[in-house]
Input
Amino acid sequence: MNAATELQVALIQMSCQPDRAANMAHIRDRIGAAAAGGARLVLLQELHNSLYFCQSEDPAQFDLAEPIPGPSSNELGALAAQYRLVIVASLFERRAPGLYHNTAVVLDDDGALVGKYRKMHIPDDPGYYEKFYFTPGDLGFEPVRTGVGKLGVLVCWDQWYPEAARLMALAGADLLLYPTAIGWDRGDSADERQRQFDAWQTVQRAHAVANGLPVLVCNRTGREACAAGNGEIDFWGGSFVAGPQGEILAQAPTGEAQLLLAELDLSRSERVRRLWPFLRDRRIDAYADLSLRYRDR
Output
């Protein structure tokens, strides 16, 4: 590889605490370590400032939200400028009274807030009551241009949708990045846990393959109890980096915090797409039904 195509990336997989200051202190420390390790791009996990509050529907949790730009984006921007690296973070955005989003922000290597992405697919499942808190995104699937390339940033539940990854790729993304918060129910069997983890990793590796792009996935880890006292989630970690053929370049363990470093060769996307020209062979004349909810026949 050469300096023009190689990119060192870092993913900060962590166990979150109830205290925002403690979480930010850990993030500051890990960003410093990532920079010392040569990273030029750092990806944080979903909603890293707090515990995963969406395990219950509680209006008091809206107090965790903040504007963008705001305190967290300003603090992370200062770290990006200090270490001359790009940071992709995940925040609970207060857009207006009663209007909130699950939003990823991109801080360029000069500290500037150069873009954001509002989570488009919002789940509503036991333990993941996100529709109570988050309005679906309205910024579309637009990559953010940074000093390390065009970043196609998506968030957690978006990771199951090939349409989202494809639209980011068609808009010129160089990388796909997923901050996420996913885990097991305490009652899941060992076999069920393995099936869920394998499905989660496989679908995102498939996004790498289908689009010929590297994929970065940063998940939280640790056990978090529901504030309402009616459940717990074992967040499974397992953060990973995959290359443009879906090959695993680096992977964190499932049960502990880790700063995961990986080196990407960005020139491989071009080489892979020449061999596997999926974009060339798309039948865009035959895909109109993809805009339907379902084909009733």
Remarks:
- The longest helix spans residues 190-211.
- The mean pLDDT is 96.
- DSSP finds five helices and 15 strands in the chain.
- The longest strand covers residues 86-96.
